[in-house]
Design goal:
The record marks 78 as: Lowers pKa of active site Tyr. GO terms for molecular function: oxidoreductase activity, acting on the CH-OH group of donors, NAD or NADP as acceptor. Residues 29-261 form the NADP-dependent oxidoreductase domain. This protein is an alpha/beta fold. It has a single domain (7-262), classed as Alpha-Beta Barrel (TIM Barrel). Helices cover 39% and strands 16% of the residues. The chain is built from ten helices and ten strands. The protein has helices at residues 30-41, 56-66, 86-100, 118-130, 144-153, 172-180, 200-209, 213-223, 235-241, 251-258, and strands at residues 7-9, 15-17, 20-22, 46-48, 74-79, 105-110, 134-140, 160-164, 184-188, 227-228. The strands form two sheets. It has an eight-stranded parallel beta sheet with strand order 3-4-5-6-7-8-9-10. A two-stranded antiparallel sheet has the order 1-2. Helix 2 links the parallel strand 4 (46-48) and strand 5 (74-79). The radius of gyration is 18 Å and the shape is globular. The termini are far apart.
Length: 275
């Protein structure tokens, strides 16, 4: 983990960058095109979008304009709840792929565990994977019981589980379960949508290292073996977020950050989500 191109090896051998750009709530058109191009120009390889973000076309346009070889990038999108089911997932995948203007995806995720549907959806992801249309498949917002239920019938285990994860919601049990089952954990909303930026403990650690609180949180992710995808629409922030490979948090720093956990969510609870 010594630079922005550093990767983790997924269960199937695919290399996934530890660090990437998320584009949740980034407007389609120029805003998302600029954000993605700035990130790629700054050395980012991984871009994470989703059908429901309604900006896949802009992400695709930015990839085209950035002029970086396709194989150097790692592109993720997700199947939305309304499209879950076997045939409808296969259709949704093709729609997303066309919007992105790509021949294949690096990672395709089930966005939420829609009860009664996520197993059929997973079968569709397994087919897409076997057909070579996607390099890796996974889930998002799955709790331990969802993963256990899915894996009872799955031919292929999820390779990634992307969940809300930050120092106020450290998800230790889920992380341990995923590690044991060779599922890479990935954090969405790693900065708790800004709620942590004025935290006194984090500020103190940041001052000690001459870094921002955001950089400290993102460094904590990496040292905790968590893939992270902070979002920003400001070029200087996109560059700053990634400037975390020139310092290391001590064990004491890490322990202090771990102690901030309050099991506090800024997003929906997967067990009480209105699907």
């Amino acid at each position: 983990m010594n630079n922005l191109q550093s990767t983790t090896k997924l269960a199937n051998g695919v290399e996934m960058p530890w660090f990437g750009l998320g584009v949740f709530k980034v407007e389609d058109g120029q805003q998302v095109i600029d954000s993605v191009k700035w990130a790629i120009n700054a050395g980012y390889k991984s871009i994470d979008t989703a059908k429901i973000y309604e900006n896949e076309e802009g992400v695709g346009q930015a990839i085209k304009e950035a002029g970086v070889p396709r194989e150097d990038l790692f592109i993720t999108t997700k199947v939305w709840n309304a499209d879950q089911g076997y045939e409808s997932t296969l259709e949704a995948f093709e729609t997303s792929l066309n919007k992105l203007g790509l021949d294949y995806l690096d990672l395709y995720l089930i966005h939420w565990p829609v009860e009664g549907k996520y197993k059929d959806t997973w079968r569709a992801l397994e087919k897409l994977y076997k057909d070579g249309k996607v390099k890796a498949i996974g889930v998002s917002n799955f709790q331990i019981h969802h993963l256990e239920d899915l894996m009872k019938d799955a031919e292929i285990k999820p390779m990634v589980n992307q969940v809300e994860l930050h120092p106020l919601l450290t998800q230790v049990e889920l992380r341990d379960f995923c590690k044991k089952n060779d599922i890479q954990i990935e954090a969405w909303s790693p900065l708790a949508q800004g709620e942590l930026l004025d935290n006194a403990v984090l500020k103190e650690i940041a001052d000690k290292h001459g870094k921002s609180t955001a950089q400290v949180i993102l460094r904590w992710d990496l040292q905790s073996e968590i893939v992270t995808i902070p979002k920003s629409i400001k070029e200087h922030r996109i560059v700053e977020n990634a400037s975390i490979f020139d310092f290391e948090l001590s064990q004491e720093d890490m322990a202090k950050i771990n102690e901030l956990n309050k099991n506090h969510r800024v997003g929906p609870d997967p067990d009480n989500f209105d699907f």
